[in-house]
Amino acid sequence: MASQESQEFNRNIMVGFIGGGRMAQAMAKGFINSGLVRATNIVVSDSSPLALQSLQQLGVRTTQSNKEVVADSELVVVAVKPNVVKKVLEEVSPEVSTDKQVFVSIAAGVTISSLEQVLPQGTRVIRVMPNTPSLVQAGASVLSPGSNARRGDPEVVRTLLGSVGLCEEGAESLLDAVTGLSGSGPAYAFAAIESMADGGVKMGLPRELALKLAAQTLLGAAKMVLETGKHPGQLKDEVCSPAGTTISAMHVLENRGFRASLIDAVEAATLRARELGASN
């Protein structure tokens, strides 16, 4: 639970989003639902009327002007595609106040140094890799502060992101791997839920029941890892009784390369994040 000092800060902070896509919507909704940021204290810019319409339903202010977002915000979240980050930051640079604002970039692969080079000298920058479960206050984020970030800046960002899930601080060199694991990871989990549900349907379960059981099973397994502190291998072994159903299923997964496929998926997403960074 946030301290009284954090509640006072978060009640007054002005948060802006440049880009109103799914990740920005997830973060904005999470901040609002947590009670840390009022909807009226959030402004979002986007060129898409559809995105702005979705955001307006949250009660936030919307605009098509990126400069307006920067002028009106203390914390500016850069939530555009990596290939347009430089263009957007060059556009808003005249509005930047290094004393007033902190820039938080969630653009995959875009390095802190590249952000600092485009923004005015001394701009406070923090790079973050969040994920979409922030929408339901179950996100997983890692932040890395830039060279100009002040002592309290990471804590401000960590408090906000902590209100919508897990938030850790780490070296920037880790963020591409974070992208490959937790940033892209919800898609792997959704595919697993869908596949497990399909298996249930194949064996006679109604679709709605199969989906609920599959989703709840992954949720419960994740909670057991986080709350028991046990290694997932140990928890797996505890489910696999001798000559039982689960060990038979695990044998099939091993034969099909289940674990290797997930490792390869994280690696592929990490390498793609590095490619994106190199091209921007």
How is this structure best described in words?
The protein has 280 residues and is an alpha/beta fold. Helices cover 54% and strands 13% of the residues. Strand 7 (139-145), helix 7 and strand 8 form a beta-alpha-beta unit. Helix 8 (175-183) crosses helix 13 and helix 9 crosses helix 10. The protein is elongated and about 70 Å long.
Indicate the topology.
Layout: H1 4-12, E1 15-18, H2 22-34, E2 42-45, H3 49-56, E3 61-63, H4 66-71, E4 75-78, H5 85-92, E5 102-105, H6 112-118, E6 124-129, E7 139-145, H7 153-162, E8 165-169, H8 175-183, H9 185-202, H10 207-228, H11 232-239, H12 245-255, H13 258-278
Parallel strand pairs: 1-2, 1-4, 2-3, 4-5, 5-6, 7-8
Antiparallel strand pairs: 6-7
Summarize this entry quickly.
Helices cover about 55% and strands about 15% of the residues. The chain has about 280 residues and is α/β, with parallel strands linked by helices.
What does the oligomeric state look like here? Answer: single chain
Order of helices and strands: HEHEHEHEHEHEEHEHHHHHH
Strand percentage lies at 5-15%
Radius of gyration: 21 Å
Low-confidence stretches: 1-10
Mean pLDDT, as a whole number?
A: 92
How many helices does DSSP assign?
13
Shape estimate: elongated
CATH superfamily of the largest domain: NAD(P)-binding Rossmann-like Domain
The total count of strands amounts to 8
Structural class call reads: alpha/beta
Count of the separate structural domains: 2
Largest sheet entry: 8 strands, mixed
**Helix share of residues?**
40-55%
